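Submission checklist for the structure archive. All mandatory fields must be present; incomplete records are returned to the submitter.

[x] Identifier: Cupin 2 barrel domain-containing protein
[x] Organism: Haloferax denitrificans ATCC 35960
[x] Residue count: 124
[x] Sequence attached
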Amino acid sequence: MDVTHIPSAETEVLEHPVQESTVLLTKGVASAFDGTSVSASEVTFRAGERTKWHTHDGVQILYVTHGTGVVGTRDEERTVSEGDLIAFDPDEEHWHGNESGANAPFSHLSVIAQPEGAGPTVVE
């Protein structure tokens, strides 16, 4: 078992390869299981912020922890809110973020399980 404590004081502002306009606020941990890397981050989007269209080599699961936001694939776009769980299949083109006229931040926990060394692929 590996237990990691991440106090809120360790929140960092990071550049992220799939962010469309500005930075993401993330807190995360990562572990490897037989060639599969599992990472978790809490991501916060301010009004109008969203990721670029992207894919992952593995599964991405989002759990909405605060506010209302939007997730989209090439086939649909959905409004999501606190308590919603979203799963994207490997290689599924998608994006996620906050509405442009939002009055509050939108946050979700992102868990990604993919081959070690893999990262997101920006598709547009």
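[x] Structure attached
Curator remark: DSSP finds no helices and twelve strands in the chain. Residues 8-122 form a domain with the Jelly Rolls fold (CATH 2.60.120.10).
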